[in-house]
Every structure is written in C-alpha cells, then in structure tokens.
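Saturday, quiet lab. Running sequence design on the structure tokens for the scaffold JK sent over.
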C-alpha cells in the first residue's frame, strides 16, 4: 500500500477531515509539528500507521526532519495543508525526489517576493513596499497614498494587520504588529521553517472595493477567492468562494461556496487568478487566490497560497460540488490518474451552498460586543433561527468547548481571537449569507453572559 507522510501544523482544513481523506487513499504517517486538536486526536490514533511528535531540537532543521521521517516510513508522497509548513514540505519533497509545490513555493508564502514577482509580470495589485524597520514604514507612508495596510510578510489569518491612516500612526502600528507576531509565534501561528520570518513586513495601498458592482444581492464582501490546484505546473481552477464583509482591519468573518457571480464576471476573475498563479511557477499543490473587487470591473490580486483554502473551504467544495480535493491531490502526488476540472465550476452546477463563520466578539456593524459572553453552541441552535433547508453545526476541533469565555476581539490579532467555527448548509448562496448574518446579529444577545469573575479575568 502507498504511504503518505502528513505534516501537521496550525491552519488548513480541520485535521480530522483531512486525515480521513488522506487515509482513504493510502497508509498515513503523521508528523505533528503542532498539538493535535482534542477533537481530532482519537481520529489520528485510529487512522495513522504512526504518529511522531518531534522534540524542539529536531524541529530546528525542519527540512531535514521531514526528509528523515519520509525515508524512515518509506513515504511515496509528503503533504501538508498548513500555510506555516508549505515551504519546508516543498523543500523536503525536492530532496526526496517526490512531487510537491516546487522550488518556488516561497514566492507564494513571502508577501514581499510574491508582490515583486507580480510587479515584474504586470499583474494588477495594490501598490506596496517591503519594510524591515520603522524608518522604512515612515518612508513608505510618505510615498504611497494613504490609507495603508501593514502586514507581516509571512503571516496568515489577518494576523498583525494594521491600518495606517496618517503618518502619526506609523510608530504605534509598527510596534503593535511586531508584538502580535511575537505573540502568534508563541501560539504556533508562525512560519516554521524560515528563521526570523516574524521580522519581515510589507505595507500596501488599501484599494477601494465595491461589492455592489459585482453581486446582485446584499450581504457580500468586496473580495472573492479562486480555489484551485496546480498539476505539473498547470493551473486548474475549481470554483469561486465569496465572503461576508471583513471585520476591521481585514479579518475574515465568513466564507461561502459558491460565490454567485455572473458567468462573464467569474471568467474575468479566474483569468486574473490564473495569471497570478502562473507567475509564481508552482509545481504540484492546492492554491487559494484572493482577489479584491472594485468599481467598474476593476480587480486587484491580494495574495495567493500554495495550499488549499483554510478553515472549511475544502469541505464546502466537497459538499456543493462533490469534489474531494484532498483525496484527488493525494492520488496525483502518488502518480495515479485524476480527472481535474478543466474550468471553474459555476454556481449553477452547485448543489446548494455551504458557508463557515468565524465567531468573533464583534457585531454585524463591526463593533465590539457590549459585554462578555460564554460560548455555548446548544444555546445557539435553540435561539438562532435559520431558513428552511438550512442546517447550522459547529466544527468542534476548531472551537472552544461549551462554557468557555469568548475572547475579546483584538483587531491586530485577527482570527487568533476567534471563539468558534460554525458551518452552515443552505439551499443557495444568498440564503447562506442571510442566515450567517442572522447568527452574527444574535450571538451577543443569546449567548449566556459571563459571570463578573469571568468578565474580569
């Protein structure tokens, strides 16, 4: 039987879901670079032929660790679905002589190199500057049109994002972003292979989005993601996912598959995504490309990743389009024939819609909840109505346990302050957006209030 080394780290689709799909195709050996979520530990024990938790000293040379483990288990393929391990896995695959993301995978990870590459290819994107010091940021603020968005070059999940509206905000933004990257590293949300990656930043112009120019109905955010895969260097688009409006600064709240764009608009978005992915020279990997939608048909590429979309993006695609992208990628990496989509699937081909909601202590207007609340999903199911044909569930391994205090939302920390991840199945995308909006509106009213002691903790 074929053997796959699965490198687990923070991020990506839920571990239990991913392991189940890989185990259906091969024997699985798990290399756990992050703690296994409590809800997935039993699944891992049941499905994996071996589980290795390396020591801190072993992790210092991550590529050598992956190569050595791949050789010990006789891996025929190595996979990861984590943003933080993509580069290490790509380099290990090169050394093992196995199919993988390829030698240019860092271009889809380091936002500075990514944007330079797109600039060289003339691809539409916001104006930007790499920054390595507070002085660099001051210089960029004097040169680029305000407002600006400061990002950590190797971050994910909107971590360490800071909006700069005036030159007077530069110093505070620089200090806070560096603090958040240090805090994120302690939580395991940081690049695992590149040394001192938390010191690298990029600042970019905030371009004006216009969801109403692209969507026929309300409730949608002004950007979409093109989900896809690169197969032997050939980009294969799979579908588009839409978003609800982000929470300031740009923290993603909810994603919905499919995105109900008209056919001609979808074709234009996919064409831009293809240009962006092709420019990076990837080999064999999932892709997730985010594109900002502006007025009068304008578009800008935000970023691309050399892995499938995180959270529930991949399960949503399987639910509505019947495509097991993880299983298909594993088959391809193992040299088996796979029938990949030749074009992006359209909303008309979807079986209903699927969405996911990151529970943050922020209301629909983007304001913080007026008081502290306790997470309790049974209360949510009882008190929050959804449409006929819709079903709301919780992704346990990505959520706090019932009874836990909902964290205060920290704009700089982004998704690091989430309380839970909910999943919604609906009859169509607009119903999904409406139902998720209802959940957002009602959570601060229906969740149990925290005790005085909890609120002060």
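Result came back. Writing it out in full:
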């Amino acid at each position: 039987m074929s053997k796959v080394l699965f490198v687990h780290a923070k991020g990506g689709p839920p571990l239990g879901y991913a392991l189940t799909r890989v185990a259906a195709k091969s024997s699985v050996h798990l290399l756990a670079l992050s703690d296994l979520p409590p809800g997935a530990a039993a699944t891992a024990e049941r499905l994996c032929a071996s589980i290795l938790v390396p020591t801190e000293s072993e992790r210092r040379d991550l590529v050598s660790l992956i190569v050595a483990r791949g050789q010990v288990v006789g891996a025929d393929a190595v996979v990861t679905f984590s943003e933080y391990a993509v580069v290490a896995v790509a380099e290990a695959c090169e050394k093992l002589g196995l199919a993988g993301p390829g030698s240019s995978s860092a271009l889809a990870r380091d936002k500075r190199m990514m944007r330079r590459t797109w600039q060289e290819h003339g691809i539409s994107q916001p104006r930007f500057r790499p920054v390595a010091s507070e002085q660099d940021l001051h210089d960029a603020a004097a040169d680029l049109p305000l407002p600006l968005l400061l990002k950590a070059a190797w971050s994910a999940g909107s971590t360490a994002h800071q909006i700069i509206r005036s030159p007077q905000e530069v110093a505070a933004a620089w200090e806070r972003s560096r603090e958040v990257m240090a805090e994120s590293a302690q939580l395991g949300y940081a690049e695992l292979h590149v040394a001192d990656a938390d010191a690298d930043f990029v600042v970019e112009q905030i371009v004006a989005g216009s969801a109403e120019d692209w969507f026929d109905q309300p409730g949608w955010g002004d950007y979409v993601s093109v989900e896809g895969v690169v197969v032997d260097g050939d980009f294969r688009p799979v579908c588009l996912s839409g978003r609800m409006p982000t929470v300031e600064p740009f923290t993603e709240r909810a994603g919905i598959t499919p995105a109900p764009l008209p056919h001609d608009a979808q074709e234009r978005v996919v064409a831009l995504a293809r240009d962006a992915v092709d420019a990076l020279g990837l080999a064999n990997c999932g892709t997730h490309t985010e594109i900002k939608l502006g007025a009068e048909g304008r578009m800008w590429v935000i970023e691309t990743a050399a892995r499938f979309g995180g959270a529930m993006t991949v399960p949503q695609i399987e639910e509505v389009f019947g495509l097991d992208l993880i299983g298909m990628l594993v088959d391809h990496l193992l040299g088996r024939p796979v029938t990949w989509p030749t074009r992006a699937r359209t909303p008309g081909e979807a079986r209903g819609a699927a969405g996911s909601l990151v529970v943050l202590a922020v209301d629909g207007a983007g304001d913080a909840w007026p008081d502290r609340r306790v997470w309790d999903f049974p209360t949510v199911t009882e008190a929050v109505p959804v449409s006929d044909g819709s079903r709301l569930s919780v992704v346990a391994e990505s959520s706090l346990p019932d009874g836990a205090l909902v964290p205060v939302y920290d704009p700089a920390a982004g998704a690091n302050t989430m309380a839970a991840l909910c999943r919604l199945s609906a009859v169509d995308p607009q119903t999904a957006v409406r139902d998720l909006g209802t959940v957002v509106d009602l959570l601060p009213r229906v969740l149990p209030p925290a005790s005085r002691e909890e609120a002060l903790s």
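Notes for JK: The chain has a mean pLDDT of 94. Residues 127-205 form a domain with the Dna Ligase; domain 1 fold (CATH 3.30.1490.20). Ask whether to fix the surface positions before the next round.
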